[in-house]
Specification:
The chain is mostly helical. Helix content is 64%, strand content 0%. The relative contact order is 0.19.
Amino acid sequence: MNQILFFGQIAVSVILIVLIAIQQRGTALGSAFGGGGGEFYSARRGIQKKLHYATIGIAGLFIILSILGLLI
């Protein structure tokens, strides 16, 4: 059971990294410090919204697997 949780956590972490990497938030590092020109607070639409919700769901699954790994 412990091995299943371990490999599941690795798979979920890879998916989480991919989801975070493909999200469009800015063209450079300067947008993280307020240089985005007003686009930083834009509304998410379409696939961008689905990617956002999928990232939240996968992050929650990662946390659950981590806690289960500690308890078992």
